[in-house]
Amino acid sequence: MTFQPDTDKPEFKAKIYRLYRDFLDMAEKRRRWSIREDIPCDQCNRALNPAVANVVESFCAVELHLPDYMGKILPHIRASRGRAWFTANWGYEESKHSLALGDWLLKSGLRSEEQMADLEELVFQHEWNLPMDSVSGMVCYSMVQELATWLNYRNLRNVVGEKGDPALYKLLGLISIDERSHFDFFRKLVQMHLEVNRPDTLEQLRRVLNHFHMPAIYALADGAQRIAAVKSLRIFDDDIFYQDVYLAVLAALGVERSEMRNRTLNRKSLKSIDAPPKGERPAA
């Protein structure tokens, strides 16, 4: 994996470490929650629309690839304490998401222990690989991924509604706050990369936005059906990606759309969740 010389300097790493400490302080002060104490599991709705449970199961499958996410990226960033320590904290928070989603599926009665074991076995048959070949590319990818993940959880929460399933509604709210915080960290990190090497970072951002798709689902045998379920509930689709991810990312970074025109980019070329770009392997 390639590095930009400027981002491998001690002063740049020191800025990342300070960014992480600010992130951690805020997390400890405002965002910590308990799976056992903060989710009203006695209020699960056993009569909830099965389509919602299918989507939750798909999100759980994405989270189950956590060992791959951690194991693949840490060797490349171990020399940056801020990045490595953030990734460790990120892994802790994502592990809670995975456990909590799995617990809800079981306590709602919409999945059995056997079904959850089958899901784990299915997921672990496939290995997730890094979708980008540079550190700046992975920073851009992670930023976009966290925003898209936040949207998935937020929109599913809106579909469920507080009265639809109070337990799932509360859980999705807590997870959404975590994911938004992850996005904010990576947004600031991308802005730091833009400051030291704007042309390269913009090129990496173009690559990500042109070929982005949600990770880990494609490798599953029923991946197409899972993606169709997400789209049918209007949780995440091409239009949502364009409006709430692509345009939102440019606005958050202060990047003009004209800066993204070095390579032709239009709505028809965006590969958000339908399929990986031709000639490339899926990220999962």
Can you put this structure into words, describing what you see?
The structure is a single chain. This protein has 284 residues and is an all-alpha fold. The chain has a single domain (43-269), classed as Orthogonal Bundle (Ribonucleotide Reductase, subunit A). It has eleven helices and no strands. The chain has helices at 10-31, 35-38, 50-63, 66-77, 81-107, 113-123, 135-160, 166-196, 198-211, 223-232, 238-253. Helix 1 packs parallel to helix 5 (81-107). It is globular. The two termini are 18 Å apart. Residues 264-284 have low confidence and may be disordered.
What is the strand and helix layout of this fold?
Elements: H1 10-31, H2 35-38, H3 50-63, H4 66-77, H5 81-107, H6 113-123, H7 135-160, H8 166-196, H9 198-211, H10 223-232, H11 238-253
Helix pairs in contact: 1-5, 1-8, 3-5, 4-5, 5-8, 7-8, 7-9, 7-11, 8-9
CATH architecture: Orthogonal Bundle
Query: What is the third-level CATH name, the topology?
Result: Ribonucleotide Reductase, subunit A
Sheet with the most strands, sense and barrel status? none
Q: What is the count of DSSP helices, taking H or I runs of 4+ residues? A: 11
* Straight-line distance between termini: 18 Å
Determine and state the CATH class: Mainly Alpha
Topology order in helix (H) and strand (E) letters = HHHHHHHHHHH
Rounded to an integer in angstroms, the radius of gyration calculated over CA atoms is 19 Å
Secondary structure class reads mainly alpha
How many beta-strand segments? 0
Relative helix content: 55-70%
In CATH, the homologous superfamily goes by the name Ribonucleotide Reductase, subunit A
Output mean pLDDT: 87
Strand content: under 5%
Model regions low in confidence, pLDDT < 50 over at least 5 residues? 264-284
Overall 3D geometry? globular
Count of discrete domains: 1
